[in-house]
Amino acid sequence: MTALTLKDAVIRYDRLTAVDGVSLELRRGETLGLVGESGCGKSSIARAIVGLQPLADGTLTIEGETLQEVSSQRKQALQRKIQLLFQDPAASLSPRMTVRSLLAEPLKIRGTYTPERWARILELAVSIGLGEQLLSRCPHQLSGGQARRVALVRALAAEPSIIVADEPTAGLDISVQGDLLNLLRALRDRLGLSYLLISHNLNVVGRVTDRVAVMYLGQIVESGPTAALFRAPAHPYTQALLSANLTLDASRRGERIVLSGELPSPSNPPSGCRFHKRCPFAQPKCSIDVPALQAGPGERSVACHFPLSTASVVTPQAIAG
Amino acid sequence: MTALVDLSRRPGGTFALFAVALLCLVAIAAPLIAPYGPNAIAPANRLMDPSLQHWLGTDHLGRDILSRLIFGARVALGISLSVIAISLTAGVILGIASALSPRAVDLAIVGIFDVVTSFPSIILALALVAVFGPGLGNVVLLVSIVFIPHFGRVARAQTIAIRNSPFIEAEKVLGAQSWRVILHHVTPNIIGPIFVLACMDIPVVITIEAGLSFLGLGVRPPLASWGNLLNDGYTYLDQSPWLATFSGLSLILATLGFALLGEALRDTIDPKLRRTL
Question: How many angstroms separate the CA atoms of A214 and A273, rounded?
């Protein structure tokens, strides 16, 4: 059963096409990772899914209902089932409100405030380590981890079925990162949530996601089950990305593949395969024909004319924990 | 309380707090502290110099100058505070509406602001009062119109600065209604600088009211407005300088007090913002 389907999504800012024909499928109860370097369109997809950015083309289907086909009232109700954890949680909390009113707000917005529901939210807040003494504080008096928890409780108070997390571990130190990821996983299992996790931190993605999609310049170049994809990437870009990942374990450290050239501007993408100018294995064909995302064995897909053999074992880089 | 201590540490802050507090106290307690009625005429005592009976002397009708100045503080504060309250409310509503509206509406509102501010405020107030007639109610309403763009522009600029910030977007994702976003999330975060502006505009309104009254277009005599007193004093300047001097001094004390308070307020708010952000 799919929780959310994004089909052929196109997102434009004026004339710049940030996302060009991306399709994603998020299954119920799973965690899907979306990785890629800065500016590849990850956050644009997150914003489009929660309704902050209109789709120029394509469709978004939430629990079987396509947003473009339902009434605007129904659309709002559906959109509310998806909550976003912002990249900077402290900035996503209204600066002059206390934690107490911030936490009560989702209930008030929906007009469902009752003492029992409020007690449940408080209970949830306390269970994830937000003590009662924090309730009268303002956002700027919270630590990074606390702000993230407040934002998380707020998102959960809206009773979503899908949570989009944009860089959920940014700005947290390693131990707090680990706590947060464990918490997210526990909440997913307890509340039956599905996650779309957006990150450039491959260690995090490798650890918590079931499947992963790799983006390059507004398009998905490869997707598949996380473990298989990390063990044997099929797309040269994925391989380079994984080889650039830092790991402390020397035995896992492979040879670093350094890409030449810079990330091209999405306003003027290269012809053919968007990656061909930086690809170490590029052939003449790559600059002419656009490779389509082809489904392969083991639920894997890759958009490459000359995919790397997934049978050969490349040293795994980012499967930690 | 800490805010008051903070304020008094600023240059001129102590003086400003003292002057404004004195003015408010005098205005509120006018009937209790004024030695005579503001309109008690005693032709025998006309144009007297300061004495123990009349601390600041008397005017051409024998009215006690101190009492008239004390009641004049009521008029000055009453008018300026009402004008600021009206123009602040209207300006904030228009400014926020402008910032959140489609471009065409925004441009229309900004255009109206520009037209109003293109005239010097005293000239525009003068013209409006000349057209619609003098009197307390008219003066308050017409001067308010002159000041609406002040607040409207600041409110618009502040709203534009925060309208796409993550905390506003977070509210939208939660499904918050527009009125809730505006009331609970936009207004509290733009209102600080607007209060500073209000403080700095109070003395301007006081002088405009005094100017209009001086020219006979403001508050009607015998109501004791500082502008009226200044006008009376000016007429009899060659016989007795006291009325003009003391009404001028009251005006200076009031405008200086509020202006310095506004500046001190701005200085205290700024670093705090930096600290919290």
Answer: 15
- What is the nearest CA distance from B169 to chain A, expressed in angstroms? 7
The burial of B267, by beta-carbon neighbours within 10 Å (0-12 exposed, 13-18 middle, 19 or more buried), is given as middle
Cα separation of A204 and A318, whole Å? 9
| A52, A96, A151 ranked by CB distance to B189: nearest | A96
Chain B, nearest residue to A76 by Cα: B175
Q: Give one DSSP letter per residue of B78-132, joined into a string.
A: HHHHHHHHHHHHHHHHHHHHHHHS-HHHHHHHHHHHHHHHHS-HHHHHHHHHHHH
Domain B2-276 in CATH 3.10.560.10? The answer is no
Residues of A in contact with B177 (CB under 8 A): 109
CA distance B56 to B246: 8
The per-residue pLDDT for A319 is 47
Chain B residue whose CA is closest to A49: B173
B277 at A interface, C-beta within 8 A: yes
Can you tell me whether residue A195 is helix, strand or coil? strand
Integer-rounded Cα radius of gyration of chain A? 21
Distance CA B247, CA B256 (A): 14
ipTM score of the complex?
0.83
What pLDDT, in 10s, does the model give residues B9-50?
Answer: 777 778 888 888 888 998 888 888 877 777 777 777 777 777
Full-model pTM: 0.79
For residue range A218-264, what is the model confidence (pLDDT) as tens digits?
Answer: 999 999 999 999 888 899 999 888 888 766 555 555 667 777 777 78
Tell me how far apart the alpha carbons of residues A318 and A199 are, in angstroms, rounded to a whole number: 13
Residue ranges per domain, chain A? 96-157
* Biggest distance spanned by C-alpha atoms of chain B: 77
Q: Does B175 touch chain A (CB under 8 A)?
A: yes
Contact (CB<8Å) B189/A91: no
Is A110's CB within 8 Å of B277's CB?
no
Question: What was the pLDDT predicted at A130?
Answer: 86
In this structure, how many other beta carbons lie within 10 angstroms of the beta carbon of residue A114? 9
Convert the pLDDT of each residue in A166-222 to its tens digit: 988 887 788 888 888 888 888 899 888 999 999 888 888 988 899 999 999 999 999
Q: Is there a contact between A91 and B276 if contact means CB atoms under 8 Å apart? A: no
Strand-pair partners of B212: none
- From the list B174, B188, B276, which residue is nearest A158 (CB)? B174
Count of pairs with CB atoms under 8 A, one residue in A, one in B: 64
